[in-house]
Design a protein that fits this description.
The protein is an alpha/beta fold. The chain has 14 helices and 13 strands. The protein folds into three domains: 2-78, no CATH class; 91-291, Rossmann fold (3-Layer(aba) Sandwich), CATH 3.40.50.300; 294-388, Helicase, Ruva Protein, domain 3. The two termini are 48 Å apart. It is found in: Cytoplasm, Cytoskeleton, Spindle pole. This is AAA+ ATPase domain-containing protein.
């Protein structure tokens, strides 16, 4: 298996089997078993392998294809693989439970998400609490005993795009724990009785691979308020869902037992008022993830756009830009900054459209330097990228926070 990290690039042509491989900056891909075939293709097309060694690899490949992709070298020691999973549990030889466990094992994050605490702007209280619950007990177990035992469960709530999933990725990257990334599709089955079995097997796996973190995104889709209209059409599915929720609550209670030591549940939701009250009671800590403050908005804009123009490094316009995006989430700001960064590219493409293709690489770089992002670009982009959060949702979240977790409001 070849680990390919997008960094220093070289142009290649990929055969049709790799045409659909989408490579993006700062992302990783794995070409499973691709190295031998790439080397063979190099020889067949009289292309030499650029470099292949113990510490780094670059593969150069040119075959007849219209698809162009960028593939780069990666120093092997820059990629720190996550610890290999230990032997798979036997489940007393039960083939059904083993099959369910195999389906859940796919949700174990085995690649480093490459999100560090420092990459997350603001949210200092949320980061402190998650470190206190997961990271620090692994480093200093003697401090977290008895009444000081680590928190077993944390609920992150807030409007979409504020960083709840990003916090979970940082937990996965910064901890040595086995990380289960769970959604409704992971544990909801169309077969009668399988959903509650999946919940039970999930926690069995978490105990087996402890220390472990179970992250349940959009948890309201799994454990909303029990009860319903009672119509015959929905009676069966409602009963099935109730059994799954009951099993989840039982497993949450079991987190306090000695056998569940090292298992932590992290859940995220945009709609905390839809959650079952019994589930809320079992979440030891609830954290409101707010919209970014003006200072945080300025930091986000700086991190995204400083490389494109000095006006976003510091100074008056950075403060103005942060004020202009009041009410935007972190995700909204990133989308806006991408739109801003594309505007000089569009100007350049419009200027060279009448020519036979783009200028060479050196002249293109010069054109980019002569066309930095401007303050006008930012102001115009705001008119095309609106914030995705409604005032009504924010107000309702604040009221729920005041009533259910006043310490974090």
């Amino acid at each position: 298996m070849l680990e390919v990290n997008v960094g220093r690039q070289m142009e290649i042509r990929l055969s049709s089997v790799y045409d659909n491989a989408a490579l993006h900056n700062y992302h990783q891909i794995k070409l499973h078993g691709a190295l031998p075939s790439l080397q063979r293709s190099c020889k067949q097309t009289n292309q030499e392998e650029v470099f292949s060694g113990d510490d780094q690899r670059v593969i150069g490949l040119s075959v007849n294809s219209t698809a162009h992709r960028n593939i780069l070298y990666s120093k092997a020691n820059e990629l720190e693989p996550r610890p290999a999973l230990k032997a798979f549990p036997n489940f007393d030889g039960d083939p059904e439970l083993q099959s369910l466990a195999i389906s859940l094992r796919r949700d174990i994050v085995q690649e480093d998400p490459r999100v560090k605490w420092g990459d997350i702007v603001g949210l200092s209280e949320a980061k402190r609490l998650l470190k206190e619950a997961i990271i620090l007990p692994q480093k200093y177990p003697q401090l977290f005993t008895g009444l000081r035992s680590p928190w077993k469960s944390v609920l992150l709530c807030g409007v979409p795009g504020t960083g709840k999933t990003l916090l979970a990725k940082a937990v996965a990257a910064e901890s040595n724990a086995t990380f289960f990334n769970i959604s409704a599709s992971s544990v909801v089955s169309k077969y009668r009785g399988d959903s509650e079995k999946l919940i039970r097997v999930l926690f069995d796996l978490a105990r087996h691979y402890s220390p472990s973190t179970i992250f349940i995104d959009e948890v309201d889709s799994i454990i909303s308020h029990r009860g319903g209209s009672g119509s015959s059409a929905s009676e069966g599915s409602e009963h099935e869902g109730s059994r799954m929720k009951t099993e989840l609550l039982v497993q949450m209670d079991g987190l306090l037992s000695t056998s569940s030591r090292g298992v932590f549940v992290l859940a995220a939701t945009n709609l905390p008022w839809d959650l079952d009250t019994a589930f809320l009671r079992r979440m030891e800590k609830r954290i409101m993830i707010p919209l970014p403050t003006k200072e945080c908005r300025a930091d986000m804009i700086r991190s995204h756009l400083a490389e494109f123009s000095p006006i976003f490094c510091k100074g008056g316009f950075l403060e103005e830009a942060a004020s202009l995006v009041d009410g935007y989430s972190g995700s909204d700001i990133r989308t806006l900054c991408k739109e801003v960064a594309m505007r000089p590219v569009r100007r350049i493409l419009a200027d060279v459209e009448i020519c036979d293709g783009l200028p060479d690489h050196e002249n293109l770089s010069l054109l980019m330097k002569r066309n930095p992002v401007t303050a006008q670009d930012f102001r115009e982009a705001i008119s095309t990228v609106n914030h995705s959060t409604s005032a009504e949702l924010c107000d309702r979240l604040m009221k729920w926070t005041d009533a259910n977790c006043p310490s974090c409001s």
